[in-house]
Amino acid sequence: MNDKALPTWTEQDRLAALHDYRIIDTPPEPAFDGLVALAARTCQTPVALISLIDERRQWFKAEVGLGMRETPLNCSICLTAMLQPGTMVVPDLQEDLRFAHNPLVSGEPHLHFYAGAALRTPDGIPLGALCVLDYAPRTLSEDQAAILTLLAQQVMSQLELRRIIAERDERLDDSRRIEQRQTLLVRELHHRVKNTLATVQALVGATGRSSGSFDEFYHSFSDRIISLARTHNLLTDDYWQAAPLREIALSELKPFAETRQPRFVLLGPPVDLAAELAVPVGMALHELTTNAVRYGALSVPEGYVEIRWKTDDVNGARQLRLEWREFGGPQVKEPQHRGFGSTLLQRVLPMQCKAEVEVQYASDGLRFQMDAPLIERRLVPAY
Amino acid sequence: MPIQNTSKPLVLILEDEALIALNLQDELQDAGYAVAGPFTTCSVALEWLGTATPSMAILDATLNDGSCSNVAAELSRREVPFLIYSGHQENHPLLAEFQHVTWIEKPAPPAALVQACEQFLVRCS
């Protein structure tokens, strides 16, 4: 059919270009209806169409005189016309071997005359044609053919305009969505900051209640704030969603990381803790470390700490087991005074993390164990 | 839950930040109140409300299982005074739902919360 130079586009490109206009199957629009009416009037034909060639059919954005919205591709004359360089005029379809067997030519409504101007994108990809048809053989005057070509260009201008408006609307929607997300994030940030301040305030109260002197209060309190800040740093790396357990433990035990003799062992698979779990677990590890430095295995050069963790599937939910065991420290005695550390381990962890906690003051070293469900939900998607 | 001393006014605490909740509990107990909870979810609080009625309540606006409005509605129905202690600003949708609700934005000095509870007592007596 197209025995000219091979086109520079593929059928896939062509369909992509067509679908870019988002025109197929849209309701009639006066701008396009007006253009086909003008074409029919100028060419003095009973039928005029804006035909767009889709994958398996030709679909009419506007039509007069035919009374159809689409036809199968074997009924399409525009499929041929759109591949011609200029306006294709066929004075009698029944005399033309290419179209004589077209169902609309050989059968009802027995079309005889066709003239069509291709609809091409600015890149030259054909989408269909603006055409006029008649039930008797005839031809077009030079003026009529020229106007048909100009009207086809007008159809393309309308299509372009429509696309630009649609793209602008999409961008507006996008920026509205971004704005909404921003508002949400600001509100969430406000909430989190206020909650963090309330947590710090609670820490002041709890530390105050368990400190003997201002000096003790000051040091314990600022150490706790620093520990909290370290966990927040790890969380910030992931949009404030999750932090690796290993990193949380490492950040607490950092001062002991570069000693000649290893002072701690971390044994466990990679596990990310959601913020709701990371913060209390970080605080718990801080209290355990502080306690070990003061009274336990890290108070003497030969002592060390073993931290083990694993995850298990319990009834389809992931469960974390975290163990802390001290070795080689001074003999352990059950404390007489329950400080903030034990409040945190025995009251905060069960409440905040739904954890089952066990603290054993074994004489050869403190043992702590917690079992808690892992929280999998994220509020903000990962990168 | 700890058994409550009935001679003391009973404050229900609904708060999912354990440290905040426990500190609030300590402050209230120091001030002569008994505490129901602290509860960390609305469903546990509602379950407890199925068995008892507190003198008053302190509620966080948003818990892990959603807005506290169910609990607030139940308390309103029983004419139990309550206040919202929340990190949200005072333009939260809950406010539209519950008029005349006392809204204290986090963080607030413990004394402010204790004082609010005292006002509830005065209003009740």
Automatic annotation (TrEMBL), chain B:
It comes from the Bacteria. The keyword Phosphoprotein applies. Pfam families: Response_reg. Keywords: Phosphoprotein. The modification 4-aspartylphosphate is found at D60. The keyword Oxidoreductase does not apply. Residues 10-121 form the Response regulatory domain. This is Response regulator.
